[in-house]
């Protein structure tokens, strides 16, 4: 297993004790911790730049604008977008997906079809239900199989010339399953449909190249990739973003405004109405620097080893059932103590007493839980600073929980 002590040193929060025990933070799928460089950059921004972007002639405003646009360029390079104006600053994955769903109003027509999957986070379900209600379009679901993977045969059968959009996650937050997105995109494009990938759980863990994927939209959050909350990105292909309607009106996103009507600015500003999260957007660039310095390949390989080790160790506890245990995994492992009357939150509470932070419940993925006929799971989710020793602590804690909940 790789030595990550030099990385851990950059995360002061990992030195905390919780309930008298050293913190073992395994809730990175919900939000990852920030390195000192990111936290320092937030203070630095408010201490020495703080000004509104894009509208000022004065020095501070220009510095803030340059810093934010520089961050946009870093993110462009990070995901290999063709142009920086294809990178839209949003407030998170949820906001990015809503931007597309609202932007498609008037484009998606009665009788058109949108395909999502049973493996989605609620933020990749509800906006499409809302769009379908408004437009009369039909929402179809790729079924989830028992092994935690999508039924690709059914997917192929669902596709037709009525399909206008396919929107699925790149990696599932609830099960940690990596979806076959290349195939999903190719099949959708073959019928002329656009594809949105919810990359919230992929971008912190693996290389994402939007041009190689040939994906039409890619959505992700800053706070799951060592960056601040309230930041996010929507990547979209230029020619498609140009067709979408802006979903929020206001300052910054206009070209001209008269009493009767307005014309809109070009990309990316058309979608960035109002004062953005300037500090957050700038500092997201620092999170990208942090990931680049470590290297996405290092992050990927280290976390793959953690996933493999966790799955192996969980398999030694007979009372534990692991979901999607043989599926291609990334970032997270989901499991339960399989015993009548034991809820995932019981396990989470015992682990918390031991200083171990995991997430329990339905993970905003109720359709998956109904498919598996369970109320929830325990999810351990990883970042590059996690260690094999922390997995050992988790396993020790789970063995204790098995005894206590007998
Ligand atoms: N999609 C997935 C797969 C996620 O894991 C999450 C966050 N749990 C979201 C969407 C929503 O992200 P946010 O709350 O940052 O908007």
UniProtKB/TrEMBL annotation:
State the Gene Ontology terms under molecular function.
cysteine desulfurase activity; pyridoxal phosphate binding
Q: Tell me which Gene Ontology terms the entry assigns under biological process.
A: cysteine metabolic process
Keywords in alphabetical order = Pyridoxal phosphate, Transferase
Source organism: Profundicola chukchiensis
Q: What is its EC number?
A: 2.8.1.7
What does the UniProt record say this protein does? Catalyzes the removal of elemental sulfur and selenium atoms from L-cysteine, L-cystine, L-selenocysteine, and L-selenocystine to produce L-alanine.
Alphabetical list of InterPro entries matching this protein = Aminotrans_V_dom, Aminotrans_V_PyrdxlP_BS, Cys_dSase_SufS, Cysteine_dSase, PyrdxlP-dep_Trfase, PyrdxlP-dep_Trfase_major, PyrdxlP-dep_Trfase_small
Spell out the coiled coil positions from the record: none
This one is known as Cysteine desulfurase
Write down the chemical reaction(s) this protein catalyses.
(sulfur carrier)-H + L-cysteine = (sulfur carrier)-SH + L-alanine
Q: Which residues form the Aminotransferase class V domain?
A: 24-394
Xref: Gene3D superfamilies = Aspartate Aminotransferase, domain 1, Type I PLP-dependent aspartate aminotransferase-like (Major domain)
Say which enzyme class the record assigns.
Answer: transferase
Identify which cofactors the protein needs according to its UniProt entry: pyridoxal 5'-phosphate
Q: Which family does it belong to?
A: Belongs to the class-V pyridoxal-phosphate-dependent aminotransferase family. Csd subfamily.
